[in-house]
Amino acid sequence: MLQKSKKEEIVKGLESAIKGSESLVFVNFHGLKVSDETKLRRELRAGGVGYKVSRKTLLARALKGKAEGEVPKLDGEVAIAYSKDEIASPREVYNFQKTHKGIVLTILGGIFQGKFVGKEMMMELATIPSREVLLSKLAFLLQSPMQRLAIAVNEVSKGKGA
Fold this sequence. Notes:
It contains six helices and five strands. The protein is of the alpha+beta class. The longest helix is centred in the C-terminal third of the chain and has 31 residues, at about 130-160.
């Protein structure tokens, strides 16, 4: 059993993580091996995402008054992934889950733009491509008509030369 001072310390740590983040994801990690959790923490840290494991009662205390709406149902063993980037935390958790088959990791919901949101909204955010990917897609779309025009002009010049 945790001492009251230790519980207060954990709640303060959770509150500071919640306050300093733009988005927060509730993650069920039930059945996750220690080695897999170490990998998860390492990959999240590399993506600029923090990760804390806590008891649900202490997390509920830390979440009081931090966002609008109702806290989503938190089943199993719960951790939070948080970051200063609004989309980084759901994306990094989702990417880890996608790239490591067989690892049980479930997004339960989170906090986005000051409101509690459900699993569906967090999954939508997680599947938004990164800024770099979106910019490369835009560049490709802009390049494509120019490339077709260059090919057409080249074909016309070949036809006149003959």
